[in-house]
Design goal:
2 copies of one chain form a homodimer. The first copy, chain A, is an alpha+beta fold. Chain A has 2 domains: about 10-105, D-amino Acid Aminotransferase, Chain A, domain 1, CATH 3.30.470.10; about 110-265, D-amino Acid Aminotransferase, subunit A, domain 2 (D-amino Acid Aminotransferase, Chain A, domain 2, Alpha-Beta Barrel). In chain A, about 30% of the residues lie in helices and about 30% in strands.
């Protein structure tokens, strides 16, 4: 059995957050961007020196589950496995794989085009280059950031780091458009490098739009022509409002990118 | 039943490290420093807005387990509980309590007096004031720091933060002695405020020794007259060697403090 039916109370995922996860959209019986998810998982495993499961067996298993599900969300967790007391990773740890199914309707292109309200979080992300970019299980900062608001009309929270650099949103990456160029924050100090972020970067390049990573701050958001968020489930979401700061019309370049992205995702 | 027999695969302790833990020494059928452990747990729960379990019921349950164990280690984990997908903490979450028993012999005063070899870790702790001091479940930095060495003769690894400040060791707090005064690093940016650290601070005050928190760096360690570590299981451990840096004789003030501490712990 590839996926655990229950978790040992000694699992290091619980004790230390010693593991990784992927949240994947299932559309038309297939995992969207599966190769990118598997690639990020392999990269994260290498960074944490967690033994990688057989990726082709995992791919097959995920595809089978997706097919039986039709539409929804799959969350895969991989931990270093069970261990004794103490931080030292056991030499012979067998990784634990957990798969959770959340049947639900995913946003359509129409939903995605409506645009969202964003707020600025008070919590600032810590800078830890050793963990930056990977989707590990140490997510207390994001829990605390998400706990800052309850208003259902606010879809996301913007996150700066402790030095005031723009990083991402709580469960999304952020992009800004300035004079026809697209920028997204560097994620070498903190933040999660989303698979949809990578797909959007590739999509913009295919369109011949100038696009790249940059060191950005809140002022860059406030002076941007367009702002949008990306994540695996919501694809691209234009930002209409940064609560108590600024409003934008849904931008032409954002819409163009959104159409191109959906075209590529539906192939 | 106060303690969970198994963990739901949806538990937020696993998904986000959304919880706290305590590692407690059991000696002569009693939990050592139990009031300090419960106090830290209450403080951590308040910081993370995790519903606190009934502390007097928890105290009674821990004492009963300790009595049946005699000697060993108890690890208590408390998570925010189970939840749906997404970082937002559920309003009605019921905390999960997990208790793990590790029967083993604890170090004696003789063991503790022998002194240890310490190394300097390459990993630098991130500065995150919102999480600093509390014993939460986001411990990947410590896993990676502990994975830096395999030599059994090296007992602990010294940790600086990303700005080069001295913070602690992987599973201990650190103290230095200079000209008869004792200093331990401030833990307002990162690190875990150990219960034995608090006990040693109180013990030094009772002895009339000048003692306090300070912003320290590696040079302060290298120029210290004496260096020692504290943790719940090992009490005070004199540092004899900082690997590739310096050696010390076991110091008079460290030994004096060690005797006074053991006297207080055995009451």
């Amino acid at each position: 059995m590839l996926f655990a039916e229950q978790l040992a109370l000694t699992d290091r995922g619980l004790h230390y957050g010693d593991g990784l996860f992927e949240t994947m959209a299932v559309v038309d019986g297939r995992v969207r961007l599966l190769p990118r998810h598997l690639h990020r998982l392999a990269h994260g495993s290498a960074r944490l020196a967690i033994a990688l499961p057989d990726l082709s067996a995992l791919e097959t298993a995920l595809q089978e589950v997706a097919q039986s599900m039709g539409e929804g969300v799959l969350k895969l967790i991989i931990t270093r496995g069970s261990g004794g007391r103490g931080y030292a990773p056991p030499q012979d740890a067998e990784p634990t794989l957990i798969l959770l199914r959340y049947p639900q309707n995913l946003p359509t292109l129409d939903d995605a085009q409506a645009g969202i309200v964003l707020r600025l979080c008070t919590l600032r992300l810590a800078r830890q280059p050793v963990l930056a970019g990977i989707k590990h299980l140490n997510r207390l900062e994001y829990v605390l950031a998400r706990a800052e608001w309850h208003e259902p009309e606010i879809a996301e929270g913007l996150l700066l780091d402790t030095q005031g650099e723009l990083i991402e949103a709580v469960a999304s990456n952020v992009f800004i458009v300035k004079s026809g160029c697209i920028f997204t924050p560097c994620l070498d100090q903190c933040g999660v490098a989303g698979v949809m972020r990578a797909e959007v970067l590739a999509c913009a390049e295919r369109l011949g739009v100038a696009v790249g990573e940059a060191r950005l701050c809140l002022d860059d958001v406030l002076s941007a022509d367009e702002v949008f968020l990306t994540n695996s489930l919501h694809t691209i979401r234009p930002v209409r409002v940064l609560h108590e700061h600024r409003e934008w019309a849904v931008g032409a370049l954002t819409l163009r990118l959104q159409h191109a992205l959906w075209g590529a995702l539906c192939v």
